[in-house]
Amino acid sequence: MLKLAAALELANxxxxxxxxxxxxxxVVVTCIxxxxxxxxxxxxxRLQESITLMHAMVFMLAAAYTLAAGGHVRVDVFYxxxxxxxxxxxxxxxxLLLLFxxxxxxxxxxxxxxxxxxxxxESSSEAGGLPYPFxxxxxxxxxxxxxxxxxxxxxxxxxxxxxxxxxxxxSDSGAEG
Length: 177
Known about the structure:
Layout: H1 2-39, H2 45-61, H3 63-68, H4 76-79, H5 84-119, H6 134-166, H7 170-173
Helix pairs in contact: 1-2, 1-6, 2-6, 5-6
């Protein structure tokens, strides 16, 4: 069970680290756009739109990595003071009651949105903007993000279940749980 959790988390962490490199590319392209604009008094709509595309990809494809790294929002004042067993229970319930339904909704809600984008061969609405297939590729990151978050949720749930098994209740062992 923990091997599966580790494998799922490893995949999400690898994609998250790749997104860090995409951040570097985004900075480089932003610098190019600024230099073009202020030193050469010209610009490129494609380059400007590519920054937006990269930014969207970073946020969507690094969400599971952020979850794996514990960088998501939670009330650490309470969570940090909890026992390992209670933290595992909170993580498990959070996945079951919040994360999994959210991922299912995101996948369901984005499916037609992405399919139509591919079907109509969507491109930028701006003259000189990004051609097909960049818009559908960006939109495809939405269901991919849902699947990645779901797999990270499975990894967290498996880890939590294992932790709950390894840390018996205080009333069972006489120790604090």
